[in-house]
Amino acid sequence: MRVIVLSSFGLLFPDLGVITAFAQNRTTITMSSPSLAVTRVLASSTKLLLLPVPLRRFPSRSIATTSTTCIKPSSLVRIAHSASNLRNVRMLAERKPFAPDFFFRQLFDEKSWTYTYLLADLTSKEAILIDPVLEQAPRDAKLIQELGLKLTYALNTHMHADHITGTGYLKQLLPGTVSVISEASGAKADKHLKDNEVVKFGRFEIKGLCTPGHTNGCMTYLVDEMGIAFTGDTLLIRGCGRTDFQEGDSRTLYKSVHERIFTLPDNYRLFPAHDYKGNMETSVAEEKQYNPRLTKDVDAFVEIMANLNLPYPKMIDKAVPANRECGLYDIPKE
């Protein structure tokens, strides 16, 4: 719920957190009508009561209190600043530490700006790879061998349009690797995941959450124990994947993010499939607060997505046909 408090000096309380901060956590909030634009704040040591009042009766340059003490503008600025700090504290809340036997490595392909993620159980040595890139498959295979790991699964978050996946090549380089993608993707793979289905590597497990919208087969992969999720192109850092091809749909993407990702704990770390500005990770709290598209209502979001006017993807005509096949087969040399 959002509350606006107006006075003659034009200050704004963005939310009830400001009022709570003022009362030092001893406050009960009563609100008679959230839709009214002008509100008087009555304060005592134990209660704040928000009452609608006509603008003409609003006290000049002050907010009336039961003790007749005025809150000066400078005090209100400090209160608002405290509320902002409280939001920042929530955003930077302590994250789940990685277990000593959990391995995590973020890798990057500079041509397609794609992140690949290597996760492993250091006891069993079983590993998984998320969103591998064809040209980087030899690099990934070499790293896995150097670390003494065994690649059990190579997963794709969706059928990519900007690069060819490395899963087929990795099956050749590291025999025994099982390719994985969502059942809804329409791509070939050794294993197709349904919503909430789990893949295990050693003692750890990763769950596939269906998050369509960018494509109809998008999945977000969740490792609950570590407090991390891999969002593919569904949710990017301060952005999201486009919705104008591959059965994309803006309303579906909005629903996926708000119902499947933004409902995760605020301190969960999020790792996208791409970033074009040098960022490496974000969090649920950050994106709920700062994502310039997905903090809007659904109609505003749909309008934004409809007016992006993005160019036709350079690799789509080559990547999509290949990605339909290479979960099972190596890529032809040409």
From TrEMBL:
One of its GO terms (cellular component) is mitochondrion. Keywords: Acetylation, Dioxygenase, Iron, Metal-binding, Mitochondrion, Oxidoreductase, Signal, Transit peptide. Residues 113-274 form the Metallo-beta-lactamase domain. Its EC number is 1.13.11.18. Its cofactor is Fe(2+). CDD domains: POD-like_MBL-fold. Gene3D superfamilies: Ribonuclease Z/Hydroxyacylglutathione hydrolase-like (3.60.15.10). GO terms for molecular function: metal ion binding; sulfur dioxygenase activity. This is Persulfide dioxygenase ETHE1, mitochondrial. Homodimer. Monomer. Interacts with TST. May interact with RELA. Residues 1-23 form the signal peptide.
